[in-house]
Amino acid sequence: VQGTGGSSAVSKCSAAARGYIQDRFLRLLAGRRRRRAPLIHRGYYIRARAVDHCVQDFLLKTQSLPRTQILSLGAGFDSLYFRLKDMGLLHHTVVYEVDFPNVACQKATLIKRMKELSALVGDTGREGLGAITFSGEDYKLLGVDLSELSELERTLEEAGLNNEVPTLLIAEVVLTYMENSRSDALIQWAAEHFPQACFLLYEQVHPEDPFGRVMQQHFRQLNSALHSLAQYPDCEAQQRRFLGKGWTECSVMDMNEFFTCCIPEDEQQRVQTLEPFDEYEEWHLKCSHYFVLAASKGMEPSWTPLLPSMTVPRHAGPVGMAGSVPAAVCARLSGTPGLRRYGHHSVLIKPNMILTTGGFGEENGRHCRMRNFHVLSKPAGYWKAVCMTQNIPDKRWGERLYHTVSCLSDTQALVVGGRTSPTSAGLGMLWLKFPETCNASDPDEVAVELVSLQPAAEAAALRWRHSTTEMTFKGEQYLFVYGGRSALEPVLGDWYFLHTPELSYTAIAVEGPVPESRHSHSACSWEGGVLIAGGLGAAEQPLGSVFFLRELEHGFQWQTIETHPPLVPRYSHTAHVHEGKLLLVGGVWFHASSVPGITVIDLTTGLCLDYVINVEHLEWPLMLHNHSSVFLPNEKELLIIGGGGNCFSFGTHLNPEPVTLSLSSILISH
Fold first, then answer.
1. Which residues contact 332 (CB under 8 A, 6 or more apart)?
2. N or C end of the chain: which has fewer CB within 10 A?
3. EC (predicted)?
């Protein structure tokens, strides 16, 4: 548990070094320095902002009082006191920090040794007595085990804490490491001990969805299990916990809500542009698995709550499910190397033959960008996998992620865009050529050829997280390239009509309201036009719109498809059309109470139904984002290949094997 504190200090320090948070004291307290990934920086940024928001609000609302106190429980190597002191916010506030005796001793030694720190505290020269390892005028550092309440109370009193003074208690990822009976007792003790107090809690939530399972497993492996999750699995349970233990007011938000509601737009944009970033799914999942809670009692009404009541509709309202879809592991494909990947693309190149290319995954026991092609074929009633390594010129293929592949004939498919790293320009287009008589049991090699585009069409390829859709106009075949993002533009809203097979850029008139820019949306061919659904918009907010690009006599028209109930905004899903129904598969949304399963939209009536995926027969968490899916209409089955991602600091999760979803019960023909 103490190790997690040291690790988080290093992460906060790295985030400060990159400009996410302004804090010159972290580097003095963190000890070792290590540069973390952008995803980790964002995660620690939002944590710091949530705590700071509540602390500064408390200080602001109580500034006219003669005296206030802050009691930081399990403070570790946190710099809160030094930051507040440096900003001149502690005129009449004393900060008490409590942690394990050895942690408190280490921190006291650090402070005494560092001129910058000891000068701020104004070391009184009084050596720490017993559990009081450091004692300044307005800063006391205590070494006490939080589960020993009588010892805690005695030491606080000895250090000068006055329980009649309005007090803010802070527990930042601390209580969850204690047994529930002990953390509950601490929450109740605080309510009984302080007549006027606020309690600020920041910790994890939602243990049972796929991301939550990976998160729990990580902390178990560190031998620091998250105890509170089983009894308090969501924000509402935590709220009931505090209200039932003596606190009279309690507001709570997950971090997606906090980022959207409490961080000004210009600050959101500043953070979004600090570093090249392309891990939106994991960022939003991380944020839906952490919450900030502010409880209070005895405070004047004008002082509470420290968190605003939700100004936007709560994301967390449960999504009504119309039924469930069974998931099963593909027989005989378990353990197939090379299909554990994300950000790849899978496409049906012939009946019962699926080509998978690119992405990031696992090869020969290590994580890397995937160079090999994989073919899944069904020669005798079951799927088998073949890895194809030959004839792929490294430089041309470029190990790309977030590209698209469109099968344009019996003998060729077109690869469009994709990236290596988020700083790279898009990767242009490639032809993949395969023999007409490609044998399913022993597929021949796939030849790779660079496409030379006219200058007018080049920009169509320099993007990723876009869509490419086959369509027709006046009987001619076109490829419609839409949206995505590039190294320069975080979100694109443009489109290109490329006449196939020679891929010449064609100007075709389009009327109607232009959809807002997006990436990580879905696009399907339908009735000669294109259906665009969902995606992530300019403010990194999921979109819930569905558009149809419909053919008219002289061009196309954007039409909005109204869905009812409204489609829950999502992105990073896949989509298929079957008999007038649009099927959306997986993705990421902000409704933390469940993960997206299958959504069926009737394109005639607009009726929108959500189905949960029943994973009871899978032994591992099924992450349905950054996956690919192939719809097999004869079997009314979806084949899910790959999926997953880098789960914050909890490790990379790759769905270990392909999965089939049986849709026969929800696609009953009327």
1. 382, 383, 384
2. C
3. 2.1.1.290, 2.3.1.231
